[in-house]
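Give me the 3D structure for Putative Zn-dependent protease with MMP-like domain.
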Amino acid sequence: MTDATADLFAPSLDDFARLAREAFDALPAEFRAAAGEVVFRIDDFADEQTLADLEIEDPFELTGLYHGVDIGRRDSLGPAAEPSRVFLYRRPILDEWCERGDVGLAELIAHVLIHEIGHHFGLSDDDIHAIEDDAD
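Predicted structure for Putative Zn-dependent protease with MMP-like domain (136 residues):
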């Protein structure tokens, strides 16, 4: 695919993975070190079981998800049985990006990634939103 035709296609799962990795690599070293061995996974949508567990009917409503034992609870629970994972859902992120039109795709991917890493650190949605509001 040439550069001229590359803009005619929606970013692939691999493109999203690259943008997520670039966003993570751009974070301060202390933040990356604290995140540890979190695994990033890019899927088009959350699977049916995940949506059912979260009581979400429209798969476009979920752009990202943290799955694992947050860092704050690990010491009391012992080692995690499986690695912590951050899921980014390509199609809902693309949909939000197109609807908003006021943010770049890389910036939106970084926002969702950082939000989910916040859950990895043990922050609630309310905690994350308060931090975001203070940053604005």
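The chain has a mean pLDDT of 86. Let me know if you want a second pass.
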